[in-house]
Amino acid sequence: MQESYDFAIIGSGPSGSVLAHYLTQAGAQCVMLEAGKALDKRTYPKNELHANSQLMWNGGMDTSQDAQLLFLRGKVLGGGSVINQCLLDRFDALALEDWQAKSTVDWHQLADFERHYNEVESHLCLHHFTDDEHQRNAQLFMQGLDQCGMKWTRLRRGQNNCGHNAKTGQRNDCMQCLNGCVRDAKQSMPVTFLRKARQQGLALLTEFNVTQVIHGQHFVTVFGEQQGQPRQIRARHCIMAAGAIGSTELLLKSGFSSSLPALGQGFTCHPQLMNIGLFDEPVDAHLGTFQSVKSDEPQFRQQGFKLENVFAGPIAIAMLKPGFGQEHQDFMQKYRHMACIEVAVRDATEGQIRLNNKGELVIDKRLQPADLQRAQAGLNAVERVFDAVGAQSVLKSPFSFGLHLMGGCTMGEGVHNSVVNSDFGVWGYDRLSIADSSIFPNAPGINPSLTIMAMAHRASEVLLAKYPCRSQYTRHIPAQDRSDLVLESVTETKTVVLKSAAEKSTLANASAKKMKLKSEGNKVTTEV
């Protein structure tokens, strides 16, 4: 049975969830399609191995074509917001000036982003870390930066009652948040925007793997499978919010590349290099507040990198040490004595997302000399910091993690060099929009989560201006009853087929004060 809605949203991360909230709040009938499972604080995996297999695409093992970059992307209800640290920074003038120079989009400037940042932040609990929350890993980082004359600042995180209390000594080990927050303290989408959208009538379909999007004159049809069963969803408008790789891959597999020559171009990320310093005394970087400090050195920003204190579980740390056998085992036995500083590079070289002759995804992303120069400048700074605080030795990262995936469907002012226009619409396809990180013109060098949310808010305004919803009424249909509903029209006047007189009567009684009803046989037309 085919189902119809005002908006179909593909993806449940920061973009999709924010869009779902504002669209349902305005009265639109929306469905969200998520490939991952609906997990929560009771069911999130408790260890790295299960987290990789249950929360990430391909077990967290998506690689670039040359295998020098390992890309991590969420596959769970809430998307990347479930597995990231929820660090929420606004873009600076440098990032947006570079965006505007590349895209020529007028509103890519701080003054235009201000109200969108303010709006989405009003729905989040934001926390700046304090001195009593820094554990030993952060303290060593700060001391080293101070001794080297390098500036630093406290991170701002989306969290609410993480369980830290300096007076009582209570401490929560926040590294677990990489597997999903077990306290619902992290401001991930399932406990913020997505929760509100569901309360406002959002239809949610999880474990739904979208295989194709067909754009028609009057509606968009989304084809896919849910737990092995074929499904079709029809909507007035479809919004891609599946992330840089997900949205780009879906458009490629749906055949849009012939009319969108820039599709797949401009792929960027923030390559991350984790570096281990070994100390005589225990550091216990795995305990307490996981990540609380970053460098704030203007010279670093101009050089294209930043430093942050981070850490990881034993599996991830073991991957950083080349070799095997006794030497590797001896290294891992020093786990409690490890501190970690990460170099986050502002990507300077664009890559490409494409399909090979077999229709398989290929991520062609190589670190070029400009990227390697930035990485090396960061590694040099890390060595200075570790040396200043007495590290016995330093293990430099042998490879890079590609985080904060961006581009592939970039925003611009022409179909020749972009996929999306300044109003988030796909060039030449009036009923298709993209509002996730795939539209970023280039890498900002700043955590993108908050800006993704801000842009989703702007996109919701554009869409509601195009499809005005004149009522707060949204009909709620239990999942088990959804197959009985067919929208014969997805215009402002909606016609639904009701299979029983009881359902017809119930709808009429519940809606009498909120809408006009016209009854013809088994059809009820609602004028919203």
UniProtKB/TrEMBL annotation:
<keyword id="KW-0285">Flavoprotein</keyword>
<dbReference type="InterPro" id="IPR036188">
    <property type="entry name" value="FAD/NAD-bd_sf"/>
</dbReference>
<keyword id="KW-0274">FAD</keyword>
<protein>
    <submittedName>
        <fullName>GMC family oxidoreductase</fullName>
    </submittedName>
</protein>
<dbReference type="InterPro" id="IPR007867">
    <property type="entry name" value="GMC_OxRtase_C"/>
</dbReference>
<dbReference type="Pfam" id="PF00732">
    <property type="entry name" value="GMC_oxred_N"/>
</dbReference>
<dbReference type="InterPro" id="IPR012132">
    <property type="entry name" value="GMC_OxRdtase"/>
</dbReference>
<keyword id="KW-0560">Oxidoreductase</keyword>
<comment type="similarity">
    <text>Belongs to the GMC oxidoreductase family.</text>
</comment>
<feature type="domain" description="Glucose-methanol-choline oxidoreductase C-terminal">
    <location>
        <begin position="350"/>
        <end position="456"/>
    </location>
</feature>
<feature type="domain" description="Glucose-methanol-choline oxidoreductase N-terminal">
    <location>
        <begin position="54"/>
        <end position="271"/>
    </location>
</feature>
<dbReference type="InterPro" id="IPR000172">
    <property type="entry name" value="GMC_OxRdtase_N"/>
</dbReference>
<dbReference type="Pfam" id="PF01494">
    <property type="entry name" value="FAD_binding_3"/>
</dbReference>
<dbReference type="InterPro" id="IPR002938">
    <property type="entry name" value="FAD-bd"/>
</dbReference>
<dbReference type="Pfam" id="PF05199">
    <property type="entry name" value="GMC_oxred_C"/>
</dbReference>
<feature type="domain" description="FAD-binding">
    <location>
        <begin position="6"/>
        <end position="35"/>
    </location>
</feature>
